[in-house]
Write a structure and sequence with these properties.
2 helices; alpha+beta; three-stranded mixed beta sheet; two-stranded antiparallel ribbon; globular
Length: 101
């Protein structure tokens, strides 16, 4: 019985890890309506969130693709806060295996 409980726990941890590892959400870190770039703020523990909320708090984790955010800027496009699409940013995200949505 103990072996089954341990096996289930190991599987659960593995599933959580795999879901996080294969997550492709760079533009999902975009939230909030805006009128201009000054309405948007960089947040999150690793600076991975672009939103209209200056007080966004996230868990402290790091993904390789977070480095790509240094190649772009957080701003307002079509009245939504988000990361600006640049060739350098898109190339970096592609190299890291993360889709830009």
């Amino acid at each position: 019985m103990k072996i089954l409980v341990v096996a289930a726990a190991v599987i659960a941890v593995l599933v959580v890890f795999l879901i996080g590892y294969y997550q492709t959400t760079p533009q999902a870190n975009t939230t909030g309506e805006c009128n201009n770039d000054s309405d948007c703020f960089i947040g999150g523990c690793s600076g991975q969130i672009c939103s209209n909320n200056p007080d966004v708090i996230t868990t402290c984790e790091y993904r390789d693709y977070y480095a790509c955010y240094q190649l772009t800027s957080c701003g307002c496009t079509d009245h939504k806060c988000g990361w600006k699409s640049t060739s350098e940013f898109n190339s970096c995200m592609s190299q890291k295996g993360t889709k830009v949505l």
